[in-house]
Amino acid sequence: NAGVMQNPRHLVRRRGQEARLRCSPVKGHSHVYWYRQLPEEGLKFMVYLQKENIIDESGMPKERFSAEFPKEGPSILRIQQVVRGDSAAYFCASSFYVAPYEQYFGPGTRLTVT
Amino acid sequence: QKEVEQDPGPLSVPEGAIVSLNCTYSNSAFQYFMWYRQYSRKGPELLMYTYSSGNKEDGRFTAQVDKSSKYISLFIRDSQPSDSATYLCAMSESFGNEKLTFGTGTRLTIIP
């Protein structure tokens, strides 16, 4: 039973480029969460999505960041015009049930902006 | 002030020792308290969760929550080198609000 898959695992972008991070949830899970982990900091909630709907985006920066979870395919976190401060590990989690303790995390995508 | 405070360590203890990891928090609305283990370059893995105040035991791990003091703990008995990892506490207000608020994590090393 495959867990949460994220790709790419490592992504290098130059300032001003776009970064696309993909998350394939556990099969059957319809809830997806994105978190960001900055160096020496804990994970910070960004957004919670269900299929085709954004439920809570209270942790998303107002500009340059967007997320989607289409009916078919993986969830995508898109960062436009990346800056050095976007360098971080981005983790996706998924759940079948809507419960705080039911989030299963992927291995993360480490974004480096040069 | 951060909503969740956690001593980042690093913490080094000899194999077989009892380890105590702690978090404090300021949001009295938190009701669910989780402990995650994260190995280097991996995603967090849920160890235990507790609802409201009280204790919960699972093998060598015991989680304690004291809501009156806004203080939670994770105890690891008979620590093993394989327990070496970063331990993250996380909290949530309720069902329907699945946003997890994490501590910064404590880096633990068990010395053989």
Q: Which keywords apply here?
A:
heterodimer; A: 114 residues; mainly beta; seven-stranded mixed β-sheet; four-stranded antiparallel β-sheet; 11 strands; B: 112 residues; six-stranded mixed β-sheet; five-stranded antiparallel β-sheet; 54% strand
Task: Explain what the structure shows.
The complex is a heterodimer of chains A (114) and B (112). With 114 residues, chain A is mainly beta. Chain A contains no helices and eleven strands. In chain A, strands 2, 4, 5, 6, 9, 10 and 11 form a seven-stranded mixed sheet that branches. In chain A, strands 1-3-8-7 form a four-stranded antiparallel sheet, with no helix packed on it. In chain A, strand 9 (88-95) and strand 10 (104-105) form a beta hairpin. Chain A starts with a strand and ends with a strand. By secondary structure, chain B is mainly β. Helices cover 0% and strands 54% of the residues of chain B. The mean pLDDT of chain B is 93. The chains are: A mainly beta (114), B mainly beta (112). The A-B interface holds A 4, 31, 33, 35, 40-45, 48, 56, 58-59, 91, 93, 95, 98-101, 103-108, 110 and B 4, 6, 8, 32, 34, 36, 41-46, 49, 88, 90, 92, 94-105.
In short:
The complex is a heterodimer of chains A (114) and B (112). Chain A is mostly beta strands.
Q: Output the number of helix runs of chain B.
A: 0
How much beta of chain A, percentage-wise?
Answer: over 45%
- The overall strand count of chain B is 11
Provide the succession of SSEs of chain A.
EEEEEEEEEEE
**Mean of residue pLDDT of chain B?**
93
Q: Low-confidence stretches of chain A at least 5 residues in length (pLDDT < 50)? A: none
Structural class by sheet pairing and helices of chain B: mainly beta
Task: Specify the oligomeric state.
Answer: heterodimer
Largest interface: A-B, 28 and 28 residues
Report the total helices of chain A.
0
Shape of chain A: globular
